[in-house]
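Hey,
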Amino acid sequence: MIRGSKSASSKYRPLLSLKLAAEHDIVNARQRARQLASLLGLARQEQVALATAVSEIARNAYQYARDGQVDFELDLMSRPQVFSLHVHDKGSGIRDLDAVLEGRFTSTTGMGLGLMGTRRLIQRFAITSGEQGTSVRFGMPRPSYLQNIEIGDFGALSLRLTQLPPLQLPEELRQTERELAGTLEHLQTRQGELEKRNSEMARLNVELEETNRGVVALYAELEDKATALRRAQELKSRFLSHVTHEFRTPVNSIMALANLLLRRTDGDLTGEQEKQISFILRAAEGLTEMVDDLLDLAKVEAGKSEVRCGEFEISQAFGALRALMRPLATNDAVSLVLVDPPAGLIMRTDESKLGQILRNLVSNGLKFTEMGEVRVEASYDAEIGHVSIRVSDTGIGLDPQDQKTIFEEFSQIHSSLQRKVKGTGLGLPLSRKLAELLGGTLTVSSERGHGSTFTLTLPVNLRTDEEMASPRLTKESTVLIVDDEEASRYVCRHMFQGSGHRTLEANALEAAERARFERPDLIILDLMMPGRTGFEVLDELRSHPITENIPVVIHTSKVITDADNHRLKGVPLAILAKSGRDRRQALEAIRRVLKDDSLFLSEPEFQETTKGKG
């Protein structure tokens, strides 16, 4: 059996070799390891670690094998260079090497403990064992700031080796005692620090649990308020829709009767009567305009406003706008200027809704401009595929605090002109909602006394509902990670790094509430968590209609038993082991849920597939 990597022996340059024929050879090996490590510039802690490791491995070779030997070598090829110790023998090998290295082997003699300890203690460790004997190689890198030792330096190094003091057993034992005493003192200090940290951790856990309870309560309250707001919005939309429909019939009747009277169908009118009926007709027309705006607004908010896409040239839309708005430009001091858009610029969107937005903006500009101009111009940004249409005026302008208010329903800004012109306060809110419906934005920049500029930005090619449901949107999926360990949450986050998928985190107490609030596309759930297990979280998720169908992947280090499978009832999509083994099936399941075949290409499970395609 082989553990680690076996490098070509030519890369190692021998420094010293010691036979393991007697007990004092083990002590000698320990002393030489420490001396050579010091000579090669390793820190004191690393010297002690190497001395301890070679003592353990050499004792194993001496006690359980024959013809043992320790070779002290320097790896000249690696960067930084590595001080390497090679302990080998011609024994019968180590049985159950896997069990020994994993800590599952039980020995009454202590056999195997040295291997386990060395493996934890030393950075670089490799072992080969079989019928021909056992070979253990381990070492420490030299500090990177030290100059590399070349072949030509070995003469001076050998001379210094010969000048090393001979083995002094009592002194070596005293040195070992000092090292053990220092190690014990260090361990006691660490123990005190750990106890202090554990105490602090316990206090923080209590505070965190209290905070979590507050967060859970806050989420519940927010969800209740969000539900209430949605209901209120639905009621408002239904009310507006109903009322506007009911208004249409009497208003249309008033307009029809007014027109009959103005046409003298039933007899002539006096001048005063004609004037009064004209006022009635204009009021009815204003009321009709408000009813139409209310109905459009209710449809947009209820999601019932249908988008009818078609291709048209922007110059055609500007021509229609010019024809419709010219009659409204009744003030000779104000000019309506429509700058010809780029020739041949074709849009694919809802032309009717675009025209409605532009009519509202131009109408507002003409109302609130006493002198100067209202200008409409368009530009195209090919890099992002968006058309920007700007409607600017030289009117009264807006204060900064009013630039948000104008997009609120029924809101109007108090000004000297506001008393002269009437409006419903619905035009701009409706225009912004229509812009968002068309996949764009409507913004304003203004300064009091210096006019306003409204900028409508729309995609030149509006995607249909079917296109919006394409896999491109899977990049916006949300994954909720439920685990009490920061390291495990970090590993899960790292899996989705750079993928475009949003990751959220929660502990066991707040998991179900967070899932109901965020409604993620996938939940990655640990089973063994303090306070509340993953099984309990899963039961709560399945008991609520909002979360019962959210796919769940179990991420655990626990070995799943038949009893666990029975309790899980086949609900989880897959089991993703924290050990890193047999993960491919789970990763493929996550890909399917998120509809993203580009996920996890850097993971080892998909490397072979990627190489094969190359």
